[in-house]
Amino acid sequence: MASQNTSRLPxxxxxxxEVAEAVNHREMRRFVEEIAxxxxxxxxxxxxxxxxxxxxxxxxxxxxxxxxxLFGGSGRCHSPGATEAExxxxxxxxxxxxxxxxxxxxxxxxxxxxxxxRKVLLENIKAGLKQQAxxxxxxxxxxxxxxxxDVLYSTVMGINAAGVPAETNFTQLVYAHDERSRAPDEMPxxxxxxxDGHLGLPDLICALKVGGCEQHRSIYYVLTVPKRTTxxxxxxxxxxxxxxxxxxxxxxxLTEFLEHETRHVxxxxxxxxxxxxxxxxxPATVHFPLAFLxxxxxxxxxxxxxxxxxxxLSSSSLLSxxxxxxxxYSLLALGLLAxxxxxxxxxxxxxxxxxxxxxxxxxxxxxxxxxKVLISHAIGSDLxxxxxxxxxxVRSQEVGNVTPRGWMVGVEGLVMGLLFAxxxxxxxxxxxxxxxxxxxxTAKAVQxxxxx
Length: 452
Prior knowledge:
It is built from 13 helices and seven strands. By secondary structure, it is α+β, with helices and mostly antiparallel strands. The protein folds into two domains: about 1-275 and about 440-450, no CATH class; about 280-430. The longest helix has about 35 residues, at about 320-355.
């Protein structure tokens, strides 16, 4: 198994902690402002209000509920002198809105584990992963854990996602583990179904869930091999897999993963927010040019071979050469118009994918397999559209006659083959690599955090 460079990991962890702390304050201010902008409690005529009710107290209670899922605020108030509204939990005076950040978990969960505790933890994890591999028929004698796990737990105990807790679904990038923790003896089901190249991914020997939430996100450290094996070969690699539904992002180490997460929460509105309101546009636009262009070319090929068709077809007025060629020409124009939003949305999605995960593998030279498919899909599609545009232009020069010449029909056949090959690449990106999948994310309920 390839060795890792772990020297930068402590620095990367500390940098993430600094950025995440600032993001927590930024996003909480943004969240409070958004709630304040929409704050319209019903008038007192429509809502029974106990003695002592105030807008400020009701607003504070709402913020605690919505941001932290602390329904009931900090608990029922029994302090001497409490108003009736406080006792019946209609408002919240203490803790105040200014104390909200006291209820937001620090980004870095401390203290880190001592050397003895780390040793026990890593031995427990290793034992569980070996059992996973053995249950799959793999000799795990020479299994070694990723080197950065020891560095991680010598720096922190765990790492929280940054942002408004309810919006991040209380995600932990790294769960807080201690010497009592261990990896499960069986591979988690969501990883087991990804074995044997399912979804176009490499085979898995074992998987350790290092973070995530209970709704839509799971973060795993997985030991991957190119194909099924009965032992652990030298080319086996530890990878971080960040899964959102079937969407899959891959990193070579915790250092790379945390660097990406640091950039993401710092630059993104919402930080690590899991709420997605927009689906990719490209899948909704790509089918129209494919359908119009392929049907256009099919009609021209049909007209060209009409003499060879059965009499009942070749004699039909609906299948006359003039009708077919006029229809195919119109479909060709429609296909080219429909290709404009498909290409623009495809370029936008490709740029987003590469900017998030990078173009190259960790060596900085080898293009990632997913990006190879992406590039070939883009080139094939662009060539097909360019050739179709050229065919349309040539046919449009014949005033009053849009009938394609014989050699054009041959070119159309080649272009249609290129279209289908490119479409196959696009399907591979979706179903083999999970590109473009996203879903609405919701927050989960958690126990109230005790005030420190």
